[in-house]
Specification:
The complex is a heterodimer of chains A (about 260) and B (about 300). With about 260 residues, chain A is of the alpha/beta class. Chain A contains 10 helices and 10 strands. In chain A, β9 and β10 form a beta hairpin. Chain B is flat and about 90 Å long. The chains are: A alpha/beta (about 260), B mainly alpha (about 300).
């Protein structure tokens, strides 16, 4: 349904070292400006490592070296001139653990905008409502906007975390196993939320759940020991994979 | 059948050990509680003697400004037992020291936990631990040799007074507040940092909008702990504050604190006399204040949990 959209992010020969241990061995991946791409693979295959490289979260760790080209709409993510603050506004990230700040729901969602200097109450109100609606959690929290976000259920917290990222209007949304800490019902809600956003954002999701990848993603990339084994339309990867490793993983023979 | 029943009903060895362990811990707990209760009981009964035996009114004790228990005031016909100058002196040096120390402590703690983690751990941590371990008399001596002359040459007067006391206390409580603030900053979950940065916060915005805000209860607790230490500190303050039991009128005027009057006077009075009893009353105030600080810390802690 979103095949016609253009490429927003192009990565070529991405290599990453933790100290002198090479964790990614040259990944080439392109992402469309709309739709969901799932990164699947066994633990330690490098999918989360790759995802975190896309908005330079590795900058926070020591001893991590990244090489290769990351072309985000004509700009290199790792160029010395790239402003990481600006980058992370355009490439937002949702983490595995639902992690709202210990503030009110409103303050959580408005956080990114306030950082950007938005003070107008009307603008903030509107952005908070829009973002919470987009994250499909508005109806559940609209009466409690001034209550602490920590009082919400895990699933609601995760959707508030998504709303917090959406509020800054990113181009790309990175999701690092966003449902692995949640119960099945909450996971289902998050999946519905992501599906409702697939026409607006480029979403890259790391997931351990193959059924989740097959349910929600347009494209799937299979990682194994730091290599990209296969990348293509989700339907094709799941129904007629080209590589034997992919077929083995999909059918549950390892991993 | 009977043999089995007997065996089942018999207490097992591990249950016995368990009971013994519980008994020992309960005993230790009981002993500590008993000691605390005895201290409180002793100080309070002694402290109240001023008001019951010597018929001094509580308001005169708390709000009177003339402290001179050994001399009978010719105007009132009563010895000078107004403790307000001492209470004021104690509160003044405590609050001022905490006010000055807090920004320094937060700055140091942020540097150690957020800015230069490695250097912070390698250099600052041992320095702070060292500062905590220095005996208070050393602080007092340095205060007397360095701070007092400095205050004297800048502001004139004797140099002994509230300002010198504040400065010495500031240095003394700085490591306490800093190390507790460091702990509370370290306690802020890493994912707050990551998610703040992930939605476009600069490092500085992350520190002051998320980390410091999330750590506020811990930082407040640290400050109250520092104040409790400052309030109870006797020796170092006594050496530099001038020990004039008068209402302090300026930062450089000599003053006295509850603790300094207590330490100097308690050996020079006779048990059971008014002069001795009022000192116990001072001790009672100190004890009640430390109780207040304690409750404050608990209250902040509980507030912080709810959020």
């Amino acid at each position: 349904m979103t095949k016609q959209s253009e490429t927003i992010l192009e990565t070529r020969n991405v290599k990453l070292w933790y100290g002198d241990k090479e964790a990614l061995h040259g990944i080439d991946l392109d992402f469309n400006s709309k739709g969901i791409t799932a990164l699947i693979g066994p633990s330690g295959s490098g999918k989360t490592t790759y995802l975190r490289a896309l908005n330079r979260m590795h900058d926070l760790e020591e001893n991590v070296t990244v090489t290769g080209s990351f072309n985000l709409l004509g700009k290199d993510i790792y160029a010395p001139t790239m402003d990481t603050v600006d980058l992370r506004k355009r490439v937002g990230m949702v983490f595995q653990q639902p992690n709202p700040f210990p503030f009110s729901i409103y303050d959580n969602v408005a956080f990114g905008l306030r950082l950007a200097g938005v003070k107008d109450k009307k603008v903030l109100d509107q952005a908070v409502e829009e973002s919470l609606r987009a994250a499909s959690v508005w109806d559940e929290v609209k009466d409690d906007l001034n209550k602490s976000a920590l009082g919400l259920s895990g699933g609601q917290q995760q959707r508030v975390s998504i709303a917090r990222v959406l509020a800054t209007k990113p181009d790309v949304l990175l999701l690092d196993e966003p449902t692995s800490a949640l119960d099945p019902v909450s996971s289902h809600n998050i999946e519905e939320t992501l599906l409702s956003l697939r026409d607006k954002y480029a979403m890259i999701i790391v997931t351990h759940s193959l059924s989740q990848a097959s349910r929600i993603s347009d494209k799937t990339a299979f990682f194994l020991s730091g290599n990209l084994v296969e990348y293509g339309d989700t339907r094709k990867i799941f129904l007629e994979p080209e590589k034997k490793e992919t077929a083995d993983y999909i059918s549950g023979r390892f991993g | 059948m009977d043999l089995i029943t007997e065996k089942i009903k018999k207490t097992s060895l591990s249950t016995k050990q368990d009971r013994f362990g519980k008994f020992i811990s309960a005993l230790a707990l009981l002993l500590i509680t008993l000691v605390v209760i005895l201290i409180f009981g002793f100080v309070i009964t002694r402290g109240l003697a001023t008001f019951t035996t010597n018929k001094i009114s509580v308001s005169k004790f708390l709000f009177g400004t003339n402290w001179n228990p050994s001399v009978v005031d010719p105007k009132t016909g009563q010895p000078g037992i107004g403790a307000l100058p001492l209470i004021t002196g104690s509160l003044a040096v405590t609050v001022l020291a905490a006010l000055i120390a807090t920004p320094f402590a937060i700055g140091t703690a942020v540097f150690m936990t957020e800015v230069a983690k490695k250097r912070g751990a390698r250099i600052m941590q041992p320095v702070i631990e060292l500062l905590v371990g220095i005996p208070s008399v050393v602080y007092g001596v340095i205060g007397l040799a360095v701070v007092v002359p400095a205050v004297r040459s800048v502001f004139g007067g004797t140099g002994l007074g509230v300002l010198s006391g504040t400065i010495v206390l500031f240095v003394m409580i700085l490591p306490t507040i800093t190390s507790m603030t460091v702990d509370s900053l370290k306690g802020v979950p890493q994912h707050y940092r990551e998610s703040a940065l992930a939605i476009g916060a600069t490092r500085w915005q992350m520190i002051y909008k998320v980390i410091l805000r999330a750590a506020t209860p811990g930082i407040l607790t640290a400050v109250v702990f520092g104040m409790a230490r400052a309030f109870g500190e006797a020796l170092a303050v006594q050496m530099v504050i001038g020990n004039a039991a008068k209402m302090p009128v300026s930062l450089t005027s000599p003053a006295a604190t509850l603790t300094s009057v207590l330490t100097m006077g308690i050996g020079n009075t006779v048990m059971g006399t008014l002069q001795n009893n009022v000192l116990w009353s001072l001790a009672m105030i100190l004890l009640l204040m430390s109780l207040v600080f304690n409750l404050l810390i608990r209250w902040i802690g509980r507030k912080g949990e709810l959020k």
